[in-house]
Specification:
This protein has 311 residues and is α/β, with parallel strands linked by helices. It has helices at residues 18-32, 49-59, 74-84, 104-112, 130-146, 163-170, 179-186, 209-223, 226-256, 263-296, and strands spanning 5-11, 36-42, 63-68, 89-92, 117-125, 155-162, 190-197, 303-305. The radius of gyration is 25 Å and the shape is elongated.
Amino acid sequence: MQPELSIILPVFNEEACLRETYKRVTGVLKRLDIGYELIFVNDGSTDRSLDIISELSAGDKRVRYYSFSRNFGHEAATSCGFEHSRGQAAILLDADLQDPPELIPEMVERWKEGFEVVAGRRQSRDGETLLKRLTSFLFYRAMNLFSEVQLPHDVGDFRLVDRKVIDQFNQMSEKNRFVRGLFPWIGFRHYYLDYQREPRVGGQSKYNYLKLIMLSLDALSSFSLAPLRIAILMGFTVTFFSMIAVAVILFQKLAFGIQIPGYAFLASGVFFFGGVQVFFLGVVGEYVGKIYKEVQGRPLYIVAAQPEEKN
């Protein structure tokens, strides 16, 4: 029988959390009295995560898993989970338990009221550094300033998604994905549940600041042409003022015969504008690189292992 609810759990080196995650999630779902399945997506873990997931699957027919041939990233693992979910709704939940499974009953209740997407909105972020909280705060505000799609502030991946939204999500073939931005782009009725984010149960965060910066660049370039338009505007502005400066210098030279000193100023200007050009060539290159990846047509992920289907 098809489950009513799918729980998608991306996993990357989470051996310290998995058993507790399984215990808390199944405990909540049993009290909810709803048909469900758990889908673990092992994103190329190098610890014992796959062994633990295999044990859980062997002992519970409602547990399924897909194990990647290498680490393809959280966005790919999330996409795999949605693609293979069978429920009328699916909940995306990180295995580290920072997002509490105890919110699932309220999510399901809001879903049954008619909301197609029910997302958790973080009111606090326990266990995270001040710098990470600050960068997260700035990221959402910057995205909404430049992006064509408005992201709700402080909403992460923790959300329930209705089947009609999942079907639309699965039709998207792009390789550079920012999942939490795709759902606002798809639309439908959203509801936001406020909650306190908890510290990790075990292990360490897999996102360092470099990865967060790269994810932010992916997010911005996937949903906005603003960087290219800013480059055009700045290029036009620099050209305009440069032409004025040249006209003033020529007038002084021809009308008054003034010798124009300033080799240091000239050299500084050359280096400055050279740096601006290189920077915006990098912006253009970011978009060209995304086009190249899409044209290659490689799969988003490769599944190396999965259990046999259970009756």
